[in-house]
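Um, can you check?
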Amino acid sequence: MESRQSRLYGEEMPQILAIDDDEVSRRLIKGNLSDIAQVSTVIGGPDGLSYLNAGNKVDLILLDYRMPEMTGIEVLKQIKGLAEFREVPVIMLTGEENESLELQALEAGVADFIHKPIIVPVMRQRVMNILNYFYLQHRLRAEVARQTKLAEKRQADAEQLFEEMIMALAQAIDAKDHYTHGHSQRVAEYSAQVSLLLGDTPQQVKLIYYMGLLHDIGKIGIPVEIINKPGKLTEEEYALIKSHSAIGAEVLKPIRIRPELMIGARYHHERFDGLGYPDKLAGKDIPRAARIIAVVDAYDAMTSNRSYRRGMTPMKVYEEIARNSGSQFDPEFADIMLAYLRKNIVLDE
């Protein structure tokens, strides 16, 4: 029964290295532990370190204290200096009853002691206790690593599903407007670019990308005939169009894992001068992400064809953003948009 229980490492027996200059001790160790482990023996400290440096697998080291050339403490310190063996438990063999020696050994990292002359049942039990303890630690670390990888995969899968659902919602909204198809995707991409230029973290960039995708989700509550109406809207129709900001915030409010998503939807029509809607916020009271999306949204709207006008030329759009910097738009983000246009867009009329 003991032998079967000793298969602590599954079907693979643990590897023990015994470092002892006494041949009787080496034979006793090997003869009485070979049923529970693969036991290798070497004569002294230099041979033991050579064995380890050769890349041999070791799960437990039995280390004699009193040996020629190097003491057990000296060997132990060198073992603990080897990164691949730092966590391998070491049991020190000693014939001395010396509290100072034991304290030194414990401070150097020894896991337990076996006193000489070796009492075989005591040796076997101590070896098995240490192997059990460190094996359980190893299994626990392996299980934690496995569960962490599973959690990371589930998180990645959930993130992908979340993004795909957001994309589907954005496409459904854009499909209602025949003249601005792809608007939400473009606003999301431009907003992410501005965020990157501002030095935001990857998490911040991704969040503003999501906000851009969903900034117009409130249009789901606006009749399609008003969204696509050719010609000028009546006051009542314009008021209904403006309500999409508040509607969007209400639609997104229940998404508790990303409560910030509603910021882009609610506040992207606020103006830096306080004359926007729905809350007439001004300046830095408008959330930063919404101030970024506001200038990007306006840029894409101006360059898109509408039922009542064709899209503006790049130069005209540039002039409009410059003219409204500090009034409609936060001047910091307007300047970034203007710099982007100068670098990436042909501005000739």
